[in-house]
Amino acid sequence: MLEGLCIAWEKGYKQLELECNNVFLVESSLEGGVANSSLVEL
User: In the chain, where are the structural domains located?
Assistant: First the structure.
């Protein structure tokens, strides 16, 4: 998921809507510092 977001960012996409029903994936992404970057809006 994070790799896909990074690829989209590099290609110039600045707003994406992402759905994920895997709570562990979401939590691990947020704990990894993604929430502090410009990739995530909570």
Answer: 2-36
